[in-house]
Amino acid sequence: MSRIAKAPVVIPAGVEVKLEGQVLTVKGKNSTLSLNVNPAVKVTFEDNELKFAPVDESKNANAQSGTARALAHNMVVGVSQGYVVKLILKGVGYRAQAKGNIVTLNLGYSNPVDYTVPEGIKVETPSQTEINISGADRNLVGQVASEIRAVRAPEPYKGKGVRYADEIVHIKEAKKK
Fold first, then answer.
1. Looking at the 3D structure of the chain, how many domains does it have?
2. CA 132 → CA 54, 66, 99, 146, 149, distances in Å?
3. CA 176 to chain centre
4. How much is the pTM?
5. pLDDT class of 117 with cuts at 50, 70, 90
6. What is residue 4's predicted lDDT score, i.e. its pLDDT?
7. Which of 135, 172, 177, 140 is nearest to 157 (CA)?
């Protein structure tokens, strides 16, 4: 059995879990998330713990049980605490501004780039060179951060571009004559 699936997901106070067939719904103070669990995984909810086990001994069922457990844990943490990803803009004249559900990025292109933020994600710009992306769905927060970073990824010679706050960009040495 998957080592990850062996550990149960403990449900904290203030989080409701509903299991109807193979649909797992988690509701907390931040939002409500649901997950269709793979049929190769057996889910049980007892004593404020979610337990995952493979239906049979196949390799696929074993892998899916670990995946389902990890996704359920991410949902529980998301609805109770939430996830935050911070981006930093490096470069002369690079700036970002959030208005409603649109983030305007000035990243050295001839025109500013407007990024529309999906439902359930909150984007803040505490300063012109910082972007904070927060939400309950870990996958969606990471996807939005990745798409904003992809507008102008850090280049290896000067390090200019959009990077994660904890990202280290290794600067290459310029060509010698």
1. 2
2. 38, 30, 13, 13, 12
3. 41
4. 0.89
5. very high
6. 87
7. 172
Would you state the pLDDT for residue 174? 84
Same domain, 66 and 12: yes
C-alpha to C-alpha distances, 54 to 6, 39, 42, 74, nearest whole angstrom: 10, 9, 6, 19
For the chain, the residue count is 177
Domain that holds residue 35: 3-80
Strand bridging mode 41-46 / 49-54? antiparallel
The mean of the pLDDT values for the chain is: 93
31 domain residue, yes or no: yes
Q: What pLDDT score was predicted for residue 176?
A: 84
Q: What is the token pair recorded at 63?
A: 């892998």
Q: What percent of the chain clears pLDDT 70, i.e. is strictly above it?
A: 99
Distance CA 168, CA 154 (A): 10
